[in-house]
Please model this.
Amino acid sequence: MTIKPIFKKILFVFPWLNRLRRIFSLSRKYRKTPENVPAQLRNDFLSKLSRKILDIYNVDLEVFGADNLPSSGNVMLVPNHKSNADSLAIMAALWKVQDDPNKERKVPTFLAKKELLDWRILRNALSLNDAFAIDRSNFRESLEVLKEFSAFVKENKTYGVIFPEGTRVKGKELGKFNSGAFKVAKNDYYTIVPVAINGSETVFNKGRKGRLKVVVSFLNPLKPIAYMTQDPKAVAERVRKLIQEEIDKNE
Model:
């Protein structure tokens, strides 16, 4: 029998209150003494939290294409965006596939929309991820944030994660992929890993019953040599088509 999320929240209310307090306390500690809260510790905490949230909502996560994740060099993950659960799915998927106990897990760094900072809990969680917030209404500022984001990813050797649609797009068809991420990738010689997320659209739907399968597929990477002569808009469309094909295949 599948327990509804609302009953799980009631049953486990105290553990979840402790997790929320942990977000605030860890974020506060990171602001005051960042050297005492290393990236690996923060990533482990957020990844475990992501898995717990998906479990609360009865999500079964399947991950494919782990071998397509480069272990070195500048790497940018570009997923489609259907739900607020997509970032959780990416965090949980990376945790799941990086299971070598002798190696540190590679940390993702997200580019998020600025509106998310209006929510206190999200603002603190994003700070633990070292996420960069972008104002989509300010083109010039967005370019500067993208440059800072790229510099951080390269310096800290993380996975840069950008949702090129820029917002959630409902329905089977993907939205337009903005070229900004691909300009950065081209300028800074990133390996681009297209990421197809299937099934996430209804994760938080209140009326949903039973368990839900969400599939995260890391597709074949595009190395710089494979797209360097292309215009960023053409690269964006190329990646969009690759993800769309994978989504259609998994429907």
Observations:
- The CA atoms of residues 61 and 214 lie 5 Å apart.
